[in-house]
């Protein structure tokens, strides 16, 4: 799972033009800066908060040739890099072929993985490339906290992958953490893990998207934790990446590093495994579906002409948030978070730090007639692996009725 | 470097940093740097006035700090 660009702006900003960059970006770019591309819905894990409800492969997933055609388009549009995710992208048999194809065509790759395929050999190969970055998902600084969300054994898998990358000399790979009520108290331990492996920490926001909708109530940070997280992020500055995902926290005070803007359909978007183009990785729902890369004109036409994206690029009015003094900082927060908690698009974020979100959620709860939207696409495993051994009983051995009788019914009397 | 209506976006694959050129003139300056003996000459050729020069100097210095642009080595000098 992957998200918005890790933008470290400022370096080339000049004071020579009027207007803030966010205002310019609000109106959309000729091509995305980066985009999230989920290559498959197949996954070896069943994380409880999976934003794409992944598990089983979809038979309609893009073929190798179709993926290469998408990469050709991205090269032509000068998309700087793609965040490849899934599902678990590395389980696609053509995964490395596609990574090589992308980097050979000036499209940088950052991919997210749970680490299952990051063997010592793979790590050595990754360490040799300047154009590939790796992001290992870890949602707990201890196996206990991590595995409760990502499944048994997933902590050990992630740490083995990190060790392999560190041993291969891969400096600065990313450790990607979705911040939850359970792991925010471990925030310094995550930093220690990152330091131990020579990695960089990337913290992102839990969204009520995909299966995340089912666990959001139990997992999303408490108000006091939001402040703790904000203060921590401010003190770390640009050392810690966030994929710009905490801009709703900017209403606590000064803005966090990054663009602090919802980039959906403006500077980022999502291509899902079957080629559907959504406004953002957290909005896999037909309301945010802009088109498909298999349509005439391909991805470029979807990006440039889809009605949905045109609409998202219109200036924000602010809606119910317009009268709030913090609107310029948080810009109303995350579209997907509002949508999947049943809140109106032009109102506060459910985790609004000024408390308006809680009031709005209470209003939704008090009106049972208002149905909270569900994700449109679900590839979850139909069964979950049972934790621990499967209980079976083996009947005591019965000796054969006579030496060469192999009939399964031998010895049973007819009723 | 990717042109945009407001100027250009620059992405550095080594540092994975994104930078912005906020207008067309600074884009023209950056593009023509290698054709001029100095950054000042590139600015003059692009029509930057003396009064505007400090702002462009700051912008180019920021780009140099982030290794988005670098001093040419004698080897690839075109002059």
Please provide a written account of the structure.
The complex is a heterodimer of chains A (415) and B (79). Chain A is of the alpha/beta class and 415 residues long. Helix content of chain A is 30%, strand content 11%. Chain A has helices at 21-26, 64-76, 95-104, 120-127, 143-150, 154-167, 187-196, 212-219, 223-236, 298-305, 307-312, 327-330, 335-339, 356-365, and strands spanning 34-40, 81-86, 108-113, 132-137, 174-179, 200-205, 270-271, 276-278, 289-292. In chain A, strands 6-5-4-3-2-1-7-8-9 form a nine-stranded mixed β-sheet. Chain A is globular, with a radius of gyration of 24 Å. Residues 7-18 of chain A have low confidence and may be disordered. Chain B is an alpha+beta fold. Chain B has three helices and three strands. Chain B has helices at 24-32, 39-45, 53-65; strands at 2-4, 7-12, 17-21. Chain B has a three-stranded antiparallel β-sheet with strand order 1-2-3, covered by helices on one side. In chain B, α1 (24-32) crosses α2. Chain A binds chain B through residues 5-17, 19, 21, 24, 29-31, 33, 78, 80-81, 108, 130-131, 133, and chain B through 2-7, 9-11, 13-14, 16-23, 25-26, 52, 55-56, 58-59, 62-63, 65-66, 68.
Give the spatial strand order of the biggest sheet of chain B.
1-2-3
Structural class of chain B: alpha+beta
- Mean pLDDT of chain A comes to 89
Largest interface chains and counts: A-B, 27 and 31 residues
Extended strand count of chain A: 9
């Amino acid at each position: 799972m992957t998200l918005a660009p890790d933008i470290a702006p400022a370096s080339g900003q000049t004071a020579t033009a009027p207007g803030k960059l966010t205002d310019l970006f609000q109106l959309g770019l000729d091509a995305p800066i980066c985009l999230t591309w989920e290559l498959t819905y197949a996954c070896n894990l069943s994380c409880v908060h999976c934003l794409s409800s992944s598990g089983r492969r979809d038979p309609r997933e893009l073929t190798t040739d179709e993926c290469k055609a998408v990469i050709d388009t991205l090269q032509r549009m000068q998309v700087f890099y793609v965040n490849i995710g899934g599902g678990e992208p590395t389980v696609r048999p053509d995964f490395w072929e596609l990574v090589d194809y992308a980097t050979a065509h000036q499209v940088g790759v950052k991919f997210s993985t749970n680490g299952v395929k990051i063997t010592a050999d793979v790590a050595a190969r990754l360490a040799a490339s300047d154009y590939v970055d790796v992001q290992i998902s870890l949602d707990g600084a201890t196996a206990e906290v991590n595995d409760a969300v990502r499944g048994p054994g997933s902590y050990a898998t992630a740490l083995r992958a990190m060790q392999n990358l560190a041993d291969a000399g891969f400096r600065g790979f990313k450790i990607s953490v979705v911040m939850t009520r359970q792991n925010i108290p471990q925030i310094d331990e995550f930093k220690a893990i990152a330091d131990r492996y020579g990695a960089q920490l990337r913290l992102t926001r839990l969204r009520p998207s995909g299966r995340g909708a089912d666990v959001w109530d139990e997992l999303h940070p408490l108000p006091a934790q939001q402040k703790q997280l904000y203060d921590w992020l401010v003190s770390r500055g640009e050392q810690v990446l966030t994929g710009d995902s905490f801009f709703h926290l900017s209403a606590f005070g000064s803005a966090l590093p990054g663009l602090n803007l919802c980039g959906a359909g403006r500077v980022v978007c999502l291509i899902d495994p079957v080629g559907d183009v959504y406004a953002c990785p957290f909005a896999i729902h037909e309301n945010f579906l802009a088109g498909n890369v298999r349509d005439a004109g391909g991805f470029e036409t979807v990006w440039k002409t889809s009605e949905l994206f045109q609409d998202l690029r219109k200036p924000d009015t602010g809606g119910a948030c317009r009268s709030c003094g913090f609107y310029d900082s948080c810009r109303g927060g995350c579209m997907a978070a509002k949508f999947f908690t049943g809140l109106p698009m032009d109102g506060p974020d459910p985790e609004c730090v000024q408390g308006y979100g809680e009031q709005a959620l209470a209003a939704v709860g008090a009106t049972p007639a208002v149905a909270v939207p569900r994700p449109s696409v679900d590839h979850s495993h139909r069964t979950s692996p049972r934790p621990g051994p499967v209980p079976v009983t083996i009947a005591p051995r019965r000796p054969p009725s006579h030496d060469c009788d192999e009939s399964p019914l031998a010895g049973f009397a007819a009723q | 470097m990717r042109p945009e209506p407001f100027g250009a976006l620059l992405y550095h694959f080594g540092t994975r940093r994104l930078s912005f050129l906020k207008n067309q003139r600074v884009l023209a300056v950056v593009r023509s740097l290698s054709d001029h003996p100095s950054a000042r000459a590139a600015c003059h050729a692009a029509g930057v006035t003396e009064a505007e020069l400090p702002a462009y100097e700051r912008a180019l210095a920021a780009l140099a700090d982030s290794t988005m642009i670098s001093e040419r080595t004698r080897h690839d000098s075109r002059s």
